[in-house]
């Protein structure tokens, strides 16, 4: 009996060690606003569904997920844990009806708490951190605005720096127009993440899907109105359908039979009022019909032996910054490199702008074969916003699709502030640390009503920050813009000119500041003495046909010259090979450690067994002597 107890204890230790050596490569921490206004802005609790969707899309034991609420006090709703079938069911029960009745919005406290909260066991080395903030308000912790401003400033500076230092991607989602867009933009763009203004609560599901695709990229099967084709290399597929309440998808198998919306061996089905997810192991080869769905809100992720991989594209790029993309194919872990293997492969890319829950196609092109890879270059995107870059790989017997998301933003945020009398302070700050501020400069240009121009160099005040105070004379009317000439941390040259905005001073009165290229009358009608270029996206709006400069072409000789030698971009073949090598090394380490623990357990069981037998024999001999 004692041996059995010892063996049980040792097995428990072994299983505990095994669970702590998990290979989850993504951490999801979701921060949800619990203020009372969320009841009216999300009456159908779509946020709860979005939390469940994120868990349902995550492969077993490949991610951790935790949920926190913030308002008057930060608190845990669902403790961070490894995502598996048990934790998914537990999450569903936790997030169904959580209270949203707080009267304050203390964002600073929840971020500070999470930065100090240790990670759970089971995350692999080098894992990715994706945090998601859902809110419908502003920093509101006191009736004293100076207290709110001080908290906001600590978030803007200290907490943002801590998030950057830890490599955390903080995605921000706004449910209303009444949010601090400048602060949310700042948090996301400084941490190489996305900010999304949700038009209706249902768009939360699409936003969470996009964030998941960024955090855990997966290849997909191209989906059309007619369905999708499964090839023999597919081992598992996960079908995600976002839909309206009551509009359930219909999945028809290659044999013509409709697949029931029920879980059973080989099929896992998870559903909610606004989404349905199927996971099918070893799906039948052939054409699958997917009816009663919107293809733009449906995706088929697969695990297969015929794999398409794309180079990692930065989550954030500056306007008019070049974007290079490469795609390569692998079969059974080996890159396809010979002409015979690649001769019948075609790769088409499409750039789509995502805004207000809608997608607008901007440009499509064929990628250029270069050796074992397919390459393309976008010379620059003019209009800020969120873009989806889709690569469709078509082979003789298989097809794949890769989705990548890019946030395009100006390299600097530009502000003008009237400090009283005739002084205007112009300031600019880098929107992301990828701008090499030490090799960048800012120049102001003021154009007066008589055509005279005034150029002023903006002094470099501190890391990524420029400032210039300019006196405005009496009866002055001027159009102002600033030009950045700089370089990215990758050594690529960059030039950006802010939108034009207008300054006027009548007589000896105060200086009036207004966005856009306006007339004197327009300035007087709508004056704001302090404006940020982040509020002037409309001034950058251009027709979709000229949204991209030089899209799709690839010519290495046409690469822009740089003042600093650019960092060499790693090929997708080398990137994937390195990832596979890292995974293999980690796996061998884990196997070796498990073997060592198993050996120690066997030795301990043997020793205890021998000891017990010896003791029993000794007692038996004593009994015989008696």
Features of the shown structure:
626 residues, alpha+beta, 6-stranded mixed sheet, 6-stranded antiparallel sheet
Topology:
Elements: H1 2-20, E1 24-33, H2 38-41, H3 46-57, E2 63-70, E3 75-82, H4 85-95, H5 107-116, E4 123-135, H6 145-165, E5 168-174, H7 181-190, E6 195-197, H8 203-215, E7 228-230, E8 234-242, E9 250-252, E10 267-272, E11 275-281, E12 286-291, E13 298-304, E14 306-310, E15 316-318, E16 323-331, E17 334-335, H9 339-342, E18 346-355, E19 358-366, E20 368-370, E21 373-378, E22 380-381, E23 385-394, E24 399-409, E25 412-418, E26 423-430, E27 441-448, E28 453-458, E29 460-462, E30 465-471, E31 476-487, E32 493-497, E33 501-505, E34 511-515, H10 520-525, E35 530-532, E36 548-549, H11 572-625
Parallel strand pairs: 1-2, 1-4, 4-5, 5-6, 15-24
Antiparallel strand pairs: 2-3, 7-12, 8-11, 8-13, 9-12, 10-11, 14-16, 16-17, 16-21, 18-19, 18-23, 20-21, 22-36, 23-24, 25-26, 25-35, 26-30, 27-28, 27-31, 29-30, 31-32, 31-33, 33-34
Structure description:
The structure is a single chain. The chain is α+β, with helices and mostly antiparallel strands. The protein is about 25% helix and about 35% strand. The chain contains 11 helices and 36 strands. The protein has a 6-stranded mixed beta sheet with strand order 3-2-1-4-5-6, sandwiched between helices. Helix 5 runs parallel beside helix 6. It is globular. The two termini are about 25 Å apart. The relative contact order is 0.09. Residues about 10-20, about 525-545, about 555-570, about 580-590 and about 620-625 have low confidence and may be disordered.
